[in-house]
Amino acid sequence: MTLQSFCVPLRAAGAPLPWRLKKEAKLPYERGYDEPGGKAALRWYDDGRISEKIGLLDTVSLLYVSNNLGGRVSETVAEHIEAHGGVATAEQLKDAGFAPGVIDYAFASGKIDRLTRGIYCTLDIIDDDFAAVTFRWPKCIISHGTALYLLGLSDRVPANLSVSVPRGYNPHELRRTYPDMRIHREDKRLYGLGKTMVKDPMGVCVAAYDAERSVADIIKLRTKGGVNPQLVRDAIVGYFKMDDRDLPKLAKMCDAVGVREELQMYLEVLG
Q1: Residue 1 belongs to some domain of the structure
Q2: Residue 258 lies inside a defined structural domain of this protein
């Protein structure tokens, strides 16, 4: 396939003409719809994407394109997702130039998988709740014990995810999908403070709080009796073993969360 775009006259290519192109598609053939003696065509861009107008094509048409043009319709969607970390939202794929019909066919043909509603992934991403939650509900930031696990500051696999959200944010679908999730609601002063991107076990980058914020949060949770004290000790000891630890930042974060004195107490005990 050359680098220039070209037209594929379907009747000349021996297609059974299952096409139902609409006039408003304005593809290379102005009258690009199925009629006696008519010709139907589509414009192909060899960067692997089809014009957004392909959203007007039916499933049979997409099947013809995939089978007769080397499977590029679905393969490039998979390649794009792979190049962007293995997970992408439907909106991100549309912004990248992939029409809804192309995305649907890639999923139906088994070239990509659906992690949750509106979130697609490569076939090697299996039951990744970390990505499913943070991509579907972007205001969710992985926090507390779950963040410590992703950061390598805890070896305890979280039985239930912990996320932080802004106060007043309460999507019912989130609760229905993850009824056991621990949701921490934060005011504007704290929400997003220390937010970063961390790779989850599947290698997908997800939104989570950094080490300093996570240590401060787990200390705060301990003061309320909501966490095992061993988890706090492991997190602090693990933090001081980090090469990129930032003690002034940790102190400031504990000040913001309101556990500066508790941090000092742990340091004296562990020291």
Answers
A1: no
A2: yes
